[in-house]
Design goal:
The chain has a six-stranded mixed β-sheet with strand order 15-12-16-20-19-17, sandwiched between helices. Strands 18, 21, 23, 24, 25 and 27 form a six-stranded mixed β-sheet that branches. Strands 7-4-6-5-8 form a five-stranded mixed β-sheet, with no helix packed on it. The chain contains seven helices and 27 strands. By secondary structure, the chain is an alpha+beta fold. The two termini are about 30 Å apart. Bound molecules: adenosine monophosphate (AMP) and magnesium ion. The site of adenosine monophosphate has 19 residues, from helix 3.
């Protein structure tokens, strides 16, 4: 058996990043930037007020001031100026007028009417108070988002604030999903003896989409070497990663590993990973495209995707370092997580609960097993939102701590 981290390292290394493309900013969410985003202009473009109030000379405060103008957001301040003992009414986001160096907020003025031609600043302010300087958010020439960073919704806002309609990102991976098995049936019709309803492909396609990859449904393929070969050749030519399910165990009808071996030009590896579930796993690159031979058991299939497919495809999309992986949290297992020694790392499907603590204490994660842990028990997987990493041995005693990969 091969240790999990060794297999993960090998897979991630083989999943080289895809080429950059220029895309509309709104379509870039979930991709990584292929080049630094540099501000071509200052944001904000000119000094403006962060508060509703009056623009003043700081040295004149506190005290009574004569109102000489009104500046709402969007107004042009040209020709307006604040002289000694004067003030201009100003609304959040409006440009600072000539002569003013601070803003006294409405809250710090003696209550009055908008049309009053005098105001009284009840407090003294320092120069610069409530003034947002030009370039305070992004200065022209500054790298605002570095290459490699994920394009978040916030980043889309930044690009818009800079007037940038497009950005250069690592291409979104097209991920082909095909399942193998003569027993598999799609849809809700009656089952003949020996048949089962297929669940791996729908679950994988959903996962692939939820990860922000582009999903390509390649259908169900019969347990026939020639058919599997043709399907994998076609998939590798049209996709950036291929997920197959089934056919990687020890059985006579397990053709995927033989076909992958033949097609992958010496890059093929067939693993017995030292984990439970998801022990069998085949991997190789076909025409430069990584092909993940995931096991057929529904739970093993999804766990295997989580452990190998997700980080591998994320690397293809330009993620690196810890951003390849799920966050790990230390959680308490109130009921314990029992197991027997077998030389494997157990990935226990658990449901998490976040327990609020008294002020000043960190929150606590609790994890509990939900339902059967058998590798075909998909319902337990469906309600799990973390994988507890239970090392070889007798398990986690009640109340003890265990590291978990957060899937939520
Ligand atoms: P295999 O890895 O092909 O030997 O399949 C292992 C087990 O998983 C068998 O019980 C299969 O019937 C089941 N299985 C394989 N593929 C799927 C699938 N796509 N959906 C649901 N069950 C599957
Ligand atoms: Mg099969």
């Amino acid at each position: 058996m091969t240790p999990l981290d060794e297999v993960q390292r090998l897979v991630v290394q083989a999943c080289t990043p895809l080429a950059p493309v220029e895309v509309p900013a709104a379509e870039a969410v979930g991709c990584t930037l292929a080049a630094d985003v540099v501000a071509a202009e200052d944001v904000p473009p000119w000094p403006n007020t962060g508060m509703d109030g009056v623009a003043v000379r700081a040295a004149d405060t506190p005290g009574r001031l004569r109102v000489v103008g009104y500046l709402p957001a969007g107004a042009d301040p040209a020709g307006m100026a604040v002289g000694a003992g004067q003030a201009i009414r100003i609304m959040t986001g409006a440009p600072m007028p000539e002569g003013a160096d601070a803003v006294v907020p409405v809250e710090d003025l003696r209550p009055g009417q908008p049309e009053d031609d005098e105001v009284e600043a009840l407090i003294g302010v320092q120069p610069g108070r409530h003034v947002r300087p030009a370039g305070g958010d992004a200065a022209a020439g500054e790298v605002v988002l570095p290459a490699g960073a994920e394009v978040t919704p916030g980043a889309v806002g930044v690009l818009a604030s800079l007037g940038l309609a497009t950005c250069s990102v690592v291409r979104r991976a097209r991920v082909g999903v095909l399942s193998t098995g003569d027993e598999l049936v799609e849809g809700s019709g009656p089952l003949r003896p020996g048949q089962i309803r297929e669940s791996n492909r729908p679950a994988l396609l959903a996962t692939v989409r939820a990860e922000g990859f582009e999903a390509v449904d390649l259908g169900i393929v019969a347990d026939d070497e020639a058919v599997i070969r043709a399907a994998i050749v076609e998939a590798a030519a049209t996709c950036d990663a291929v997920l197959t399910t089934g056919g990687v165990s020890m059985g006579d009808a397990d053709h995927v590993k033989g076909v992958l071996d033949e097609l992958s030009g010496g890059t093929f590896r067939w693993f017995q990973v030292a984990i439970r579930p998801a022990k069998p796993f085949a991997f190789g690159t076909v025409a430069g495209t990584p092909v993940f031979g995931l096991p057929g058991n529904p739970v093993s299939c999804l766990v295997s995707f989580e452990l190998f497919g997700r980080p591998g495809i994320r690397r293809r999309m330009g993620f690196a370092g810890e951003r390849l992986w799920r966050p790990v949290v230390a959680a308490e297992a109130p009921d314990g997580l029992r197991r027997r020694p077998d030389g494997k790392l157990h990935l226990v499907r658990v449901a998490t609960e976040l327990v609020p603590q008294d002020d000043g204490h960190p929150v606590r994660w609790l994890v509990r097993e939900r339902g059967s842990q058998a590798s075909n028990a998909l319902t337990a997987m469906a309600v799990a939102d973390a994988l507890a990493l239970v090392p070889d041995g007798d398990g986690v005693p009640p109340g003890a701590s265990v590291n978990c990969w957060l899937l939520r």
